[in-house]
Write a structure and sequence with these properties.
By secondary structure, this protein is an alpha+beta fold. Helices cover 46% and strands 14% of the residues. Strands 1-2-3 form a 3-stranded antiparallel sheet, with helices on both faces. The termini are far apart.
């Protein structure tokens, strides 16, 4: 029915958001739900240091006063709930995990990971900020990692820094 078509369209947009970091898809979903409702949902989910505003999607870093923010703690909290199957439901968490695992070029957290490690992650890059957060599945145990940077003059250096931190993390297990 129409509900199934709508659900598939939303899932397709979410896949674009996660796999391709497609800001247009993100903006479409965000505007459909509404910024106020999303911020209320963040609090209900336990994300107490996360906020989103319409300015998030403006690209020029010099002309934007943006009150969008999150913290590594909130991101790790959310990923942990997804990992444990506790976010919305076990089925929904499983679907989210599969979307986070969608194949993409191994960058940032994935650059130095051994081939036998699986990575479910989400990158972010906007107006001087460069991030990557994910769940690393390893033969000896899984872990969650989040590296967030801001005010970068060079995205290349920020990505290299993230990949270095990820390498240090997996070498300790």
């Amino acid at each position: 029915g129409l509900g199934d078509v709508y659900k598939r369209q939303v899932i397709d947009l979410v896949k674009l958001m996660i796999r391709d970091s497609d800001n247009t898809a993100t903006k479409m979903i965000t505007e459909r739900i509404g910024y106020g409702r999303l911020n209320d949902l963040f609090v209900e989910m336990g994300l107490l240091n996360t906020n989103i505003s319409p300015q998030s999607f403006r690209l020029n870093r010099n002309l934007v006063e943006d009150d969008s923010y999150t913290t590594p703690e909130d991101v790790v909290f959310l990923l942990n709930r997804i990992y444990k199957g506790e976010f919305i439901s076990a089925d929904a968490s499983g679907e989210m995990l599969e979307i986070l695992k969608l194949p993409k070029k191994r960058t940032r957290l994935g650059v130095h990971l051994p081939d036998e490690f699986e990575l479910a992650h989400k990158t972010g890059l906007l107006r001087g900020a460069c991030h990557d957060a994910g769940i690393v599945f390893t033969p000896s145990g899984d872990y969650i990692i989040c590296v967030m940077t801001e005010e970068n003059r060079s995205y290349r250096m920020a990505k290299r820094f993230i990949s270095h931190i990820a390498r240090l993390a997996f070498q300790t297990i």
